[in-house]
Every structure is written in C-alpha cells, then in structure tokens.
C-alpha cells in the first residue's frame, strides 16, 4: 500500500507517516525509485502496535525503543494493551456518569455531595500500568503504588479522598508564585503525605515533580484539577526540595 492509502485506511495524516519514517519508528518495506513509500502487511501490524501504545500515553521515543527491542513480544503486548484499555474504559464510564450527575445537579434536579463530584478521578494507579512500565523499562513509576495495593478498601478510599483534597487545594493556588509561602505550605503537605506511603528524599521528590511535566500521562491526570497544575507542582516541588536539601 502507498502512504496515502495507509493514511486513509488508518485515519491519520500522510505527514504523520512521513514523520514516523523520518524518526525510524515505522520504515516502509520499500521505497520506489520515484520516491513512493510502499507499506507491507507487516508494516501495518507494526503501525497498529504503535497506535495502541500511543493511545495509552507512551511517547514516540519510548515506543520506538519498545518495539525495536529483540525481547518485544507482540502477543504479550496486545494482551496487556487490552487489560489497560478495559481499565481505562472503566474509569471513563465513571467519569461520564459523574458529568451527567453534575449536569443534573446544576439544574437542581439532584443534590451531589463533594465526594460524588470527583468520582472517576482515580489517581492511585491503573493496576496494569505498573506491569507495563516494569515490562518495558519505564523507571519513572510512583514509588507509592505498591504500598497502596496492600491496604484495605476503606483505607484506600480514605487515602484517595485525602489525595484529591490536596490536589484541589493546590489547584486553587496554582496561579501564585511557586516559591510563595502559600505554595510552599501546600507542597509541604504533599511531601508529607507522600512519605506516609513511600520513602521520598528531597532529590526524589524534585525528580517526581519533573516527571509530572515530562510524562504526558501524569500531566493529563493532574491537569484535570486545573490546567497548568502539573507545571506549578513541578516548580513548587523543586523550590521545596532545594530549600530543604542543604
């Protein structure tokens, strides 16, 4: 298939396919003397895999590393993709329900508690995301995930409520200076909270903040509380770490 045919089949742009070729992510089976890219069925299988990873938030650089690894197992990857997508669908269904209830609440048809307003915002972790990161070499994993998985449901509910409360408070002050007293008090609360579940040095805390911006999955989740929150937290966490790491 020619590049335009592939683009039409998949629903992506020709420019995107050209970019994938340029960075060595998806190299066509052959290129004719006239310069036309020709894609094989194997290329299409690889493209499908790329798009699955992309849908789950993996950056292109990491996708390239994963699928070019000699140990990459396509069947294993598809199985894990399915698990992660099912979990993602479950969370989205809950968020859709929350949106619908919020619309009714705004119209005065029902009353929502503060807790109900944030149902579906799950920042603990996708149980299969940890598996995926370990399998494909992503070291930027929240250190508290494993411990969270070992606590009871009631403790987890209390943890998540506290988690969301801190994020909501930080979102309210995200337009202030990261080194302001208010911002630093809020970030200290976040630091102390994280250390009830894990063991974060000041350097690790600062590194975690950087991940909030570097990893689009973290950015997307955090910014649901307020656009720009991930960057604000990154900056405030860096200030906090530098001030205390002396």
TrEMBL record:
GO molecular function: DNA binding; DNA-binding transcription factor activity
InterPro entries: DNA-bd_dom_put_sf, MerR-type_HTH_dom, MerR_fam, TipA-like_antibiotic-bd, TipAS_dom
PROSITE patterns: HTH_MERR_2
Protein name per UniProt: MerR family transcriptional regulator
Family annotation (Gene3D superfamilies): 1.10.1660.10, Antibiotic binding domain of TipA-like multidrug resistance regulators
Coiled coil: 89-116
Entry annotated with the keyword Transcription regulation: yes
Annotated SMART domains: HTH_MERR
Species this protein is from: Lederbergia citri
Start and end residues of each HTH merR-type domain: 1-69
